[in-house]
Each structure stands twice: as C-alpha cells, then as structure tokens.
Specification:
The chain has 147 residues and is an alpha/beta fold. It has a single domain, classed as 2,3-Dihydroxybiphenyl 1,2-Dioxygenase, domain 1. Helix content is 18%, strand content 31%.
C-alpha cells in the first residue's frame, strides 16, 4: 500500500541553464551590456567553465559547449534557436533605453498581452524579452507615444 505523501510547493526558483559557444563573450555581453553580476563560477585549471549570473531577482547559468564528452556537446545549428527567456520587469521601457545607450540592438518597445515588451538576442541567438505590465492599449509602439 502506497504512503499518503503530502506534496508542498518546495520549488524556490527556476534558473535557465544556457549552453554557449564562447563563455567569455557571453559573460561580457550579460555583464557589460545587460548589467548582470556574477554570483557563482566554476573555474577548473583557471578557465571559466560555468557561471551563475544575476540581476535583481533574475538569474541564469551559462556553460560553454565542449568539443567531446558526455556533457554539453554543442547541438547542430544555432544554440538559442527557438528559445525565449521572458524577464518580468518593473519598467521594460527604461531597460530598453539603458540597453540602447550601451549600443545593444534592443527592438522598439510595443504593448503585447498588456505588457510593454522590448526584445533582443544574445550572442548565441537566445531571444531575451523584457516585459512590464501596462494599461497602455495593445499594439501601441513607444514611438507613437513619444512622437
């Protein structure tokens, strides 16, 4: 007879784990351009192999694909193809302006699903959506309000 198991929430957070082609390039992108900081890192033999980056309440982990072995062999095609990370923000429009000031090709914010959304891609093609709740009408573009 099976025991009556109580299942509580137990989960604390989800942290995306992204395989990247050049971890140094990706770390520079996330830290220098998007304002993340390094929370944890693994550096066997002095070489960065894995890291945990964070900004505010958002985190992600990066690990460079290996040439061979059982763990992390690079898949065919673009690593980030078909993957979107949706960062929920206090002010996506402010982030758009911050990113553009750093030379990042963030797309013009628009309203979709009752949220301001600005989109950009990281060096491996992972799509990054930065979103914040708004009461501005659907399909409004930022330029329409500032125009």
């Amino acid at each position: 007879m099976a025991a009556n198991v109580q299942i509580g929430a137990n989960l604390l957070q989800v942290v995306p784990f992204l395989g990247v082609t050049d971890i140094d390039r990706s770390v520079r992108f996330y830290i220098d351009n998007l304002g993340f900081t390094m929370k944890h890192q693994w550096t066997p033999e002095g070489k960065l192999r894995w890291c945990w980056l964070t900004r505010g309440g958002a985190s992600l982990m990066l690990q460079e694909f290996v040439k061979e072995g059982h763990c992390g062999v690079r898949p065919e095609g673009t690593p980030g193809q078909g993957v979107s990370l949706c960062f929920q923000c206090e002010d996506a429009v402010a982030l758009y302006r911050e990113f553009r000031s750093r030379g990042i090709d963030a797309k013009e914010p628009f309203v979709g699903n009752s949220m301001w959304v600005t989109v950009l891609s990281d060096p491996d093609g992972y799509k990054l959506d930065f979103e914040s709740v708004t009461d501005t009408p659907e399909d409004t573009k930022l330029s329409e309000l500032e125009g």
